[in-house]
Amino acid sequence: MTFFDWIREPWPWYVAGPLIGLIVPALLILGNKSFGLSSSLRHICAACVPAKIPFFQYNWRKEGWNLFFVGGILLGGIISAVWLSNPNPVVLHPDLALELKGYGITRFDGLVPADLFSWDQLFTLRGPLMMVGGGFLVGFGTRYAGGCTSGHAIMGLSTLQWPSLVATCCFMAGGFLMANFILPFILNL
Amino acid sequence: METQEKKIHTPSEAELQRDLEVRELDTMCVNESTLVHKPWHNIKYVLVGILFGIVFVKAEIISWFRIQEMFRLQSFHMYGVIGSAVVVGAIGVFLIRRFNIKTIYGETIVIHPKTFSKGNVIGGLMFGLGWAITGACPGPLYAQIGTGATVITVTLLSAIAGTWVYGLLRDKLPH
Prior knowledge:
The structure holds two protein chains of two kinds.
Chain A (H helix, E strand, L loop, with lengths): L2 H6 L4 H19 L7 H10 L15 H20 L10 H9 L23 H20 L3 H10 L3 H26 L2
Chain B lengths: L1 H7 L4 H13 L17 H16 L5 H8 L5 H22 L19 H17 L3 H9 L5 H18 L6
Helix pairs in contact in B: 3-7, 4-6, 7-8
């Protein structure tokens, strides 16, 4: 197996996790920046549709680095898809595969299931509920919570801040509730 | 130096006060650096972003399936990723504090304390619900679009709308 074959395989957690952890000191050393991604959504609001709302009246240009950072993430996604993509289908827990087949989700060839998230699905009942409804909850919830997985779970816990621990526990609680008790009804639509 | 800074941005007293107030309310939005940089200095953040995006995709952190496995306790993968990231991040922060490491521009590194609000709980639960539906937190949304799932722009626009509505209703919500 060449290095290139190896790098195209899915990376294990003990490679990915420490690399993500290194972003915390890297951003601090590069320019005193706190790792956090959901704030990019706020800067986009402040830059494009501030609409005299006090929450969006601030000098967003000062936080412009964050928009360059998420722009980089987008480019990273393109680079991985073009040159580093895994030729094999996504490996799935057999219980999950069986459960999803029950909802008519049978394509496991991508990271984003095409049976749920595609332009065609926007014209069903389930599609907009998941894409528009889910996205809204992510945007509203992260800002209300003051951060997301990167800002609270990784940056906040790395700097030993208890409000971030509370927030992270609530992220997980919400996720457990949705995935196990509510999502089955949505997927059945 | 001072004249150069003034040319770039001269905030009024009221503007400074409001800026500070807003940033205190929302600790996720704090940029402690007071230096003024040329726009191309932002390239370094693009590069860190690219590396991060590749890790996101290659470790399948942006996969809807991996997030479902996490919330169904069917896989250790995501717990391993987040757990080891926190450990490495904490060691990095400890070393920065212990040896008083400065930024590459010689500034003292400041880590802003997060203050507790009811939003951590209510907003946290809401985000958790959304996370399990979309299989993505805000960062992975950008990476998913990059991998060619163009329809996720709809999810991203909706997330921006969600943030906007929060800003609109902020004063009426418990904090």
